[in-house]
Amino acid sequence: MAQNFNKAVEVVSDFGKSGQTMTNDQALEIYALFKQGTVGDVNIERPGMFSLTAKAKWDAWNGKKGMSQDDAKAGYVATAKSVLPAEWASQIP
Fold this sequence. Notes:
By secondary structure, the chain is an all-alpha fold. It has a single domain (2-89), classed as Acyl-CoA Binding Protein (Up-down Bundle), CATH 1.20.80. The protein contains 5 helices and no strands. The longest helix has 16 residues, at 2-17. The mean pLDDT is 96.
């Protein structure tokens, strides 16, 4: 699983660097699964009301509370495969 997760992270990063984008909802889901898979449950305070992006990321991550890191990594791989264009998704085992 770790190898597939690491490859998916690499592909998603390269996709972002290519100038192509996901929807905000897709990006938040990818972010939340990445954080849950690498850190676990949210471990920081919710950002203030003026930090809209940071607050949205925190809320998405907090929505994964209780999910195991292995399940989050598997979810990350599956989500990356489903939201990326076929030519990118095909790079993920």
